[in-house]
Amino acid sequence: MKNYFCNPVNINYRYQFNLDQRNHGVMKICREAADPSMIFYKGRYYIFASMTLGVWVSDDMAHWENHRLPDELPLYDYAPDVRVLGEYVYYCASNREHNCDRYRTKDILNGPYEKIEGNFAFWDPNLFVDDDDKIYFYWGCSNATPIYGCELDPATMNPKGDKVELISGDPFKKGFERIGENNAFLPAGAEEIENSYNNFFKSQGLKEEDVPAEVRPLIKGMFTRKPYIEGAWMDKRNGKYYLQYAFGGTQYNTYGDAVYISDNPLGPFKLADNAPYSYNPGAFIPGAGHGSTMEDEYHNIWHTSTMRISLNHDFERRVGIWRAGYDSDGELFCNQRYPDWPYAITDDHINPWEEPEWMLLSFGKKVLASSNMDGFEMDNVLDENVRTLWRPATNSAQEWITVDLGDSYEVHAIQINFGDYGIDLKPGGEIKGTSQARYIEEEDLYTRWKLEGSEDGENFFVIEDKSDAVTDLSHDLIIREDGIKVRFLRLSNIEVPYKQIPAVSGIRVFGLGRGSRPGKSSYTVVRENDLDMSVQIKKDNALGHMILWGSCPEKLYHSCMVYGNEGVDKPKRIGALVSGREYVVRVDSFNENGITIGETIPVK
């Protein structure tokens, strides 16, 4: 049997009790994991992500377990960086307020971890070991300063020589670096920044001196609209150095990763032709920024990065994994077509461009529920939007919700997605940190439910019963590789952490219909300016469309997924272009029965 994964990664995401010091110290509670470093070490896969208190471990990249890391590691510092160096694994994380130490171990799960004293502070670190065993270090996370690099002394792991400026943001030439939903904004002028900064304090009833000095630049930075350039990660391939970085703001759907290329580890670097290379502005859960790129034991390339929810807090985030690779011209790419649909993982070479086996069956179908709260209607579970929720009137186990697919299908995969809303609790432990002060939930919590299926809506059978589960999987995936015949799916007996009233963000059903694929899409595309193009799709019978673009028909490496009438009722704006570069576009159509490849046209 094959193993399957479906983004976001199916693992327990720990709750964060965030003390928002920019807003009267309000407590905001949500799940979070972000900034993943993924490595292959001694036959197993490991993901280290921010704010998880642990490491995720897998033998097959489909099934992950969370293991607690020792308290002496900086588990409350962001962006853990992990690299294999010889027989050791080296670990460090971010802190602007004091020197950052490193740790190394030969046994990730059991330790011990040897401490290596640091001698400078940094943010968003990345360690890189070259073929000649020289060690380099990259860091930076700011909308005012660049990403830096330097060589390290292998004995002390401290800088050897001066730091070098490597990558700076330029949102006037790189459309994808602009912040805001769909890359909406160019940077603000000095007068606008100062007025917005002063008005912020007035609106909050505060004086500037009421806010800690280290927080004030972060507040002012919110009003510059300059992109943060952050999350460095270095790889080498065939003598070329690929310095990757994140852009666009983690709270926006356009959070992604781009890459610069050089013949030398400290540059000079040139923006890759395929930039951005990790960009996922559409789909059920968007975002694909601040991550890492890894080669597995079969020489397949994988990219893992941060996905955006940002409903309860800007840093409400998840982790995704995508197939990646290098083309014959040395361009690093990442396939984010159908980015949160199930894909198979086999035990050998994987085709990074293989289409999904199963199509989405649940979008826009009918749904019934025992009850729902105002503003949290039951249709929200089928709208392919992780930020919209269904909530019943109570947290009783008797509440239920039923999806009617409209016909009987061979169903192969179901993803049950839970959200959170309005949790009002005190943290169970000490608040740590300053600008991102928080308590990370230590307790292991439970998410429980029962899923039943039926062909007639009256006689139900159990598909999966997790009524007594001892796991907290908020994006759980059920696979039935051989398929089950079902029209109705009923979710009931729901119990979620902290005895909340449940919030379900998506019941997503995958299989294959028995009809025909949609016809080829008809569309027009116009380049509005150097950084933006608009795609207008003619109304057709498709369930949705995949907008692809790139430098030539063979390199359509960028994608944006749209459902229903998005891009049909009015043009879909794509704001990720690079000034001075030429593009071609293709629009594929899809429905429950498959995908139809469209025609490729140049962008005028």
Indicate the CATH architecture of the largest domain.
Answer: 5 Propeller
Query: Mean pLDDT, nearest integer?
Result: 95
How many structural domains in the coordinates? Answer: 3
Corresponding CATH superfamily of the largest domain: Glycosyl hydrolase domain, family 43
* Net shape: globular
What is the CA-CA span between the terminal residues?
47 Å
What is the CATH fold-level name of the largest domain? Tachylectin-2, Chain A
- The helix tally amounts to 2
Structural class per helix/strand content? Answer: mainly beta
The proportion of residues forming helix, as a percent range, comes to: under 10%
Set down the secondary structure blueprint:
Blueprint: E1 3-5, E2 15-20, E3 26-31, E4 34-41, E5 44-50, E6 54-58, E7 65-68, E8 81-85, E9 88-92, E10 102-105, E11 114-116, E12 126-129, E13 135-139, E14 147-152, E15 159-167, H1 190-204, H2 216-222, E16 230-237, E17 240-247, E18 256-262, E19 270-271, E20 289-295, E21 301-308, E22 317-326, E23 332-334, E24 343-345, E25 359-360, E26 366-369, E27 400-418, E28 438-440, E29 448-454, E30 460-465, E31 475-495, E32 504-512, E33 523-527, E34 533-537, E35 544-550, E36 558-563, E37 572-574, E38 584-591, E39 594-596, E40 600-602
Antiparallel strand pairs: 1-24, 2-3, 2-28, 4-5, 5-6, 6-7, 8-9, 9-10, 10-11, 12-13, 13-14, 14-15, 16-17, 17-18, 18-19, 20-21, 21-22, 22-23, 25-32, 26-27, 27-31, 27-32, 29-30, 29-31, 33-34, 34-37, 35-36, 35-38, 38-39, 38-40
